[in-house]
Design a protein that fits this description.
This protein has 621 residues and is α+β, with helices and mostly antiparallel strands. Helix content is 40%, strand content 18%.
Length: 621
């Protein structure tokens, strides 16, 4: 990487002309009762969650998944064919972007003339995805504390809380046949303002109170994606005070969903409390040996996120009707996967250190967030520069894609919204970001969470008494995923192939698929061993029965009685004992019986034989 001497524009001096963020939060759909055999299959879990969403709550089913954005479903009164074509133009561009088998996965298989309708739900899509949407929440207000950075240490109060207002452009919940769910929340920046008095704030903050800069953008990327606080710190003014409350680090001070029409919604007016978050994991104080000691431990997701997903219940939370058979369990840590589109006046003003911070969603700072040796391959591994050339600095070569294992960030030149000139980044690139790139990221992220979920289910089957039937169910799910939803190619477009390859490399989905295949082979070997043991048991019983029947087929008995007298009964008794022993040894796990026999021989039989031998020697010597 180049030295940070050029460019030299600081992040708080670069204005943001467009900011859009999509938060992807993956879950696994788990049964409330682990012993519920009706939910062993991912499809059954998906349908159980679908039933909950359709019965009650604000989520509405979207039948046509090609119209997954709200503007695709807004039909004007008296809409003409030409108006409908303009409304669905972007959805058409997205649909034809992908291969046919990917189209069937994302949007469903089209109905054909030969299809038979066997039930009343003939028009309902039975595909691998069920899509639900919320349109009652259209605004988000978040308060963040941004630590203003300075070249030299200063005692000046720079901890200023700012309120960021976002328009909610999409709130979708995807249910997958693999037994997974994914929340897709898209927000668009509308404004920023300081909270409270600015008397103690620096002059630079007072003069630019309503302006969003690249430093604000970095703060939002760092904090908005977190669904619970990663850790707590002592407040600066209370360091050393044991009774002082803890301050959540990298987290919102206030979080409010709103409906602009009537102002209703869900708001968290108080900062998250360390005491409440810790009690969700470890129980109440003094309850280590009480009722809370055995409670399931789960990530303490922030209450506004739980409210957004109602009526589905998140693991570790309370609520839900008695007839709810499934719940959601978050996959990953406190950071959700982030997609961001950032527009600036000139991307070539961004410093190299700020490129790194944007890629890894780190907060603002003057220096590199990581060591230079670690970042040696940053441009090669994390930057997609098909449309970015810093040497020429031309406007059409000013779009850079930044990719890591938890973020996809697109940065480009964008004119201010009040200018009427044609802006490709604001219009064309936004459509690609919200549609084409979103689907690519969602498919890749689904591959990762599905592989993790299937691996966990296979491991859980190993602990079940009926391992064979459980493992066979998981095997069917893995085969279904591998042959229907695992894609090596998703589009004939070169850019789509290259972005998909980069995302798969950072998420390590191919390595995870290989590892799952190894686990399946090992489980298959164990299944084969179990089946062989069962065959041995059956064969042992059959062998015993054959010997027994063979005895009666000999000339030991006749109509008048025994031919050999007492010899016949003796032979019959010996054969019967041998058959019983053979049947018992083959019916029971013979290895454990052999170990038990060795233990009894060494501890009981062998000492008595030695004592008897010593007695005989002393008797006749």
């Amino acid at each position: 990487m180049s030295e940070p001497s050029v460019p030299t524009v600081a992040a708080d001096q670069i204005d943001i002309t467009l900011f859009r963020e999509i938060i992807l939060l993956p879950f696994t759909i788990d049964p409330v009762d682990p012993s519920d055999l009706g939910l062993a299959d991912g499809r059954c879990r998906m349908e159980a969650a679908q039933k909950i969403l359709e019965t009650d709550g604000p989520w509405k089913r979207v039948e046509n998944r090609a119209c997954h954005l709200p503007e695709d479903r807004r039909v004007a009164t008296g809409e003409t064919a030409q108006q409908r074509a303009k409304r669905l133009r972007s959805a058409y561009e997205e649909f034809v972007y992908f291969e046919p088998y990917v189209q069937q996965f994302l949007y469903g298989r089209p109905r054909r003339p030969g299809d038979k309708d066997q039930d009343k739900d003939k028009d309902k899509d039975k595909g691998p995805i069920a899509l639900f949407a919320r349109e009652d929440v259209d605004q988000l207000d978040v308060d963040f504390k941004r630590d203003e950075y300075k070249p030299e240490p200063s005692n000046e109060n720079t901890d200023v809380v700012r309120r960021y207002t976002f328009a909610v452009d999409r709130c979708n919940l995807y249910l997958f046949e693999t037994g997974n769910a994914m929340l897709a929340l898209e927000v668009r920046y509308q404004g920023v303002a300081p909270v409270g008095s600015l008397d103690g704030a620096p002059a630079s903050i007072r003069d630019n109170a309503g302006r969003m800069t690249l430093a604000d953008c970095q703060t939002i990327l760092e904090n908005l994606r977190r669904v619970f606080p990663p850790y707590f710190t002592e407040m600066k003014a209370e360091v050393g005070n044991a009774a002082a409350p803890l301050d959540p680090f990298y987290f919102a001070r206030r979080f409010a969903w709103r409906n602009a029409g009537d102002g209703t919604g869900k708001a968290s007016t108080e900062p998250v409390q360390a005491k409440e978050q810790i009690e969700q994991v470890f129980g109440r104080a003094g309850a280590e040996r009480g009722a809370d000691a055995d409670r399931p431990r789960a990530a303490p997701m922030f209450e506004p996120w739980r409210w957004l997903l109602q009526p589905l219940v998140i693991e570790g939370g309370e609520g839900g009707a008695a007839d709810h058979r499934v719940r959601l369990a978050q996959i990953g840590d406190d950071r959700a996967f982030v997609m961001a589109q950032i527009g600036v006046c000139n991307t070539f003003d961004i410093r190299d250190s700020d490129w790194v911070r944007l890629c890894y969603c780190d907060g603002p700072g003057l220096r590199y967030p990581y060591a230079k040796g670690f970042l040696r391959g940053f441009v090669r591994n994390n930057c997609y520069d098909r449309f970015f050339d810093a040497s020429k600095k031309e406007s059409w070569q000013a779009t850079r894609y930044l990719i890591c294992n938890f973020a996809f960030v697109m940065v480009g030149n964008c004119l201010p919204e009040d200018e009427k000139r044609d802006d490709w980044f604001r219009h064309l690139f936004s459509r690609h970001f919200r549609r084409h790139y979103f689907q690519i990221v969602m498919i890749t992220l689904l591959h990762k969470v599905a592989l993790l979920s299937l691996s966990e289910r296979l491991a859980e089957a190993l602990d079940r008494a009926d391992f064979g039937s459980e493992a066979e169910t998981v095997h069917r799910q893995i085969l279904n995923f591998t042959h229907r939803y695992w894609f090596e190619e998703i589009s004939a477009q070169i850019q789509a192939h290259e972005l998909f390859t980069m995302l798969r490399g950072h998420l390590r989905t191919r390595e995870m698929n290989v590892q799952l295949g190894q686990e399946v082979r090992e489980a298959t070997g164990r299944l084969a061993g179990i089946r062989q043991d069962r065959l041995n048991q059956v064969a042992g019983i059959g062998l015993g029965a054959a010997v027994f029947v063979g005895i009666f087929g000999m000339n030991v008995f006749n109509e008048s009685g025994l031919v050999f007298g007492s010899l016949g009964w003796t032979l019959f008794t010996v054969i019967l004992v041998i058959v019983a022993l053979i049947t018992y040894m083959l019916y029971r796990p013979w290895r454990s019986d052999l170990r038990r026999f060795r233990y009894c021989w060494r501890r009981c039989v062998q000492p008595r034989l030695c004592d008897g031998w010593q007695w005989l020697r002393s008797r006749f010597s």
